[in-house]
Amino acid sequence: MKFIGRERELAILRQRFESDRSENILVYGRRRVGKSELIRQALRDVKGVVISYVCRRAPFEQNFTGLSRAVSEAFDESYISFPDLEGLLNYVYRKAERERVFLFIDEYPFFRGEDGSVDSEFQIAIDRFQHDACLKLVLCGSYMDTMRRLVESDAPLFGRFSEILKLRPFDYYDGARFFPDRSNEEKFFLYSVFGGLPFYLLQIDPNLSVEENISKLLIPEGSMLENEIRLQLASELSKEENANYVLGKIASGVGKYSDLAAGFPGKGSAVYHTLEKLSGMDLIEKDSPLNAGSNRRKHRYVISDGLLDFYYSYLFRETTARSAMAPEDFYRLKLREKVETEYLPRRFEQAAREYLLRRNRQGLVKPPFYGIGRYVYNDKVHQRNGEFDVVTEDERGFSSYECKYRKKPVDMSVVREEEEQARSLGLPFYRFGFFSRSGFTGIDGEKYPLITLDDMYR
After folding, report:
1. Which of 141, 195, 367, 451 has CB 3.0 to 4.6 Å from 306, enough for a Cys bridge?
2. Residue 438 pLDDT more than 70?
3. How far apart are CA 416 and CA 414, in angstroms?
4. Domain limit, last residue, from 149, 167, 185
5. pLDDT-derived band of residue 70, with 50, 70 and 90 as boundaries?
């Protein structure tokens, strides 16, 4: 299948691989985000000897034997054996003094285990040979905590990596490249439900509708993607039930730390540990309003992954109905209206942020903004708190973008309502923009930034 996306990361790796010196590269990110495939693409057609080994969840001795075999096969020297890791690395580096060598170790945390001495062996070899050899060492892994620890200031490999790449899920635009023949509404719908992990997007059947794909891949109890979610959690969390509690609460709108801790079924420190783990795995993130400063009461946790958001919002607590009903009936009777009126409008706001970020990074937003997020306010007249969901901050001040995911075009009544609300609350917005699923009518596009769903995919 054609390789999709990652143009920037691919260019970085190829540049490193083509250099005439040793390079030490760290590539990490969530399971199924496409790390291994990216490296394999970068290694295609390279000039030199390629050693590639995928580590198993097994004792060090077993993985060392596998790596040793990969080294001997790469150099076509089957009689070679190594007494220890030091001997193997010395051998590879000596070879790299005469020709370019690529050493790719996938799922490095399985090789390393909890023994930091393995990192030290690599550090010693790097320091000894890096100026005389041309070895391209690539360490790759999904265990986020372990991979991040490799570059901490007290770690043996700190300062040894010439490139560190953290792969993130695709945004709404790159995610749509997996199904180019779909309508823009279908592209957005699929991304909103399945998120931006390449492996998940590859499971979508091009011959089925969006609803049929959801009914096939997610709704049946024990479906493939439900099992993927469980594997994701089990990989780094000791108590899956704690993660289920936290994710379920966040999906229902409970995002403040104090509210999550209040009903947590365990010790007070356990909720903090679970939140830290889920944040470290990039499954949730702390959403801090632009104008909240250090006021922690304004901060909240949100689910950053589309598939997890959908699953915990609508499927996690419905195991009985899902097992009792045909998937198509479950979707029609229990999901369709909620998805259309609640879920897609919420994810539309996230896609709007991603659109603005893309444009800003391309230099297409004037003036460029340096902050994007929510803007919270306290309406003392009506004694209520509220927020504007998509706001940017630049050198001139704040711009607010209202997002309307509905079937009729946005007209001037929506514009006047937004401006009047901001004026009555005394909010410092100097510009108002609008995102619309179905276009606009009667609004001056020179005065107000107007972005349709079709514009977002151009």
Report:
1. 195
2. yes
3. 6
4. 167
5. very high
Claim to verify: residue 128 and residue 208 sit in the same structural domain: no
For residue 16, being part of any structural domain is answered with yes
Provide the β-strand partners of residue 222.
Answer: none
Which residues are within 8 A (CB) of 364 and not within 5 positions of it... i.e. 6 or more apart? Answer: none
In a shared domain, residues 12 and 136: yes
pLDDT tens for 93-144 read: 999 999 999 999 999 999 998 878 999 999 999 999 999 999 999 999 988 8
Do 160 and 14 share a structural domain?
yes
d(CA 254, CA 201): 28
Residue 54, both tokens: 């995928």
Query: What's the token pair of residue 244?
Result: 């289920």
Cβ atoms of 22 and 129 within 8 Å: the answer is yes
Residue with tokens 């004792």, as numbered in its chain: 59
Give backbone dihedrals phi and psi of 389, rounded to 5 degrees, phi first: -80, -30
Domain membership of residue 359 (yes or no) is no
- Of 182, 191, 196, nearest to 214 by C-alpha is 191
How far apart are the C-alpha atoms of 391 and 370, rounded to whole Å?
11
Q: In what order do the strands lie in the sheet with 429-436?
A: 371-379, 384-394, 397-404, 429-436, 450-452
Q: What is the CATH number of the domain that holds 249?
A: 1.10.10.10
Q: Sort strands 163-167 and 49-54 into parallel, antiparallel or unpaired.
A: unpaired
Q: Judge whether 437 and 345 are in contact, CB under 8 Å.
A: no
Q: Which tokens go with 422?
A: 């901001």
Here the CATH number for the domain that contains residue 44 is: 3.40.50.300
* CA trace torsion 171, 408, 426, 359 (10° rounding): 30
Do 60 and 156 lie in one domain? The reply is yes
Average confidence (pLDDT) over 29-45: 94
Asked if residue 302 has pLDDT above 90, the reply is: yes
Spatial separation of the C-alpha atoms in residues 24 and 16, rounded to whole Å: 9
Residues of the domain holding 44: 7-167
As a three-state string, the secondary structure of 364-419 is CCCCCCCEEEEEEEEECCCCEEEEEEEEEEECCEEEEEEEECCCCCECHHHHHHHH
Please confirm whether the linkage preceding 367 is cis (ω < 30° from 0): yes
d(CA 212, CA 228): 19
pLDDT at 116: 80
- 214-223 contacts at long range (C-beta below 8 A, 24 or more positions apart): 214/331, 214/335, 215/327, 215/328, 215/330, 215/331, 216/327, 218/193, 218/310, 218/311, 218/315, 219/315, 219/322, 219/327, 219/330, 219/331, 220/322, 220/327, 221/319, 221/322, 221/323
Among 47-56, 149-158, 411-420, the minimum mean pLDDT is found in 149-158
Q: What angle do CA 271, 274, 280 make, to 5 degrees?
A: 140
Count of structural domains, the chain: 3
